[in-house]
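Agenda item 2: phosphoric acid mono(formamide)ester complex prediction
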Amino acid sequence: MTTIPATKRDLRTSADLSADDAAEILSIARTLKRDLKAGGNEPLLKGKSLAMVFEKPSLRTRCTFELGMVQLGGHAVYLPPNEIGLGKRESVADVAHCLERWFDMIMARTFSQKTVDELARHCKLPVINALSDYEHPCQALADYLKLTEHAGDLRGYNLTYIGDGNNICHSLMHIGVMLGMNITVSTPAGFEPAKSAVEATLQAASAGGGSYTYERDPRAAVRNAQAIYTDVWASMGQEHEAAEREKIFAGYMVNAELVAHAPKGAFIMHDLPAHRGSEIAADVIDGPNSIIFDEAENRLHAQKAVMVFLDRASQ
Ligand code: CP
Ligand code: NVA
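Presented output:
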């Protein structure tokens, strides 16, 4: 039986985290990863249950949340696309009111950020954004967990994002500057990050000591990059724009020619799924500087840390 917390914390967007929260999640994640590799985790979420609401497909998010919950002593129930019919079969509020009677935590992958916000508003349980059209904070936390494993403190670390100013870009920007990183974004005209995300990022940068720079020219954008990050040009729900976007984004492919403008050894990053030959060349994604599958691995550890963090904060 679920216990409804007196106070709860959500992870709807990066704005739900302070710089200290982000650092704490990464620290919990490092401990959980170390313990898992040393034989197993303490059952920190013993008997707890997670509802996994998906309006879109997933490999990484679904597997890592479900496995993560099991490794921490809890269990998860997968609710696939078309199962619930959020806002269609019944209202988001009614779904939230039902889920809170059975579960301890909810993660939701939705088309609209508004749906995640509405779930959180109508539900007394912690709600985690597992990708919306606006953000993918769990991905950014996993990515930065990977970079801390190489660089330790990320203050002053230079990451350049190339491509669409989308959900991934928004979370990387915001959490990156919170951690004191220098984030550079390069997109074609008309595909810049949302104004609201830039504003939130600049605000977090002034508090966290990081910086945000926009640079239209991808070659100039990677000049000081220690890590180069890209994502699909057409996100889930934008498939009908894919052909048109292929033409618009052509100069923004992360290929050997672009990487040659970056410092030697710059890491190559991608949240996956990737389209080899579109946003990233096959020899780059499979090359020696790619840390793409390490990022995917770290989804497990980072999300376990998010769940432990929200559970503790919501007692
Ligand atoms: N990166 C990511 O979220 O992957 P999935 O869409 O497979 O969950
Ligand atoms: N921007 C991509 C990320 C997938 C994990 C999408 O929204 O489809």
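Discussion summary: The radius of gyration is 19 Å.
Owner for follow-up: CH.
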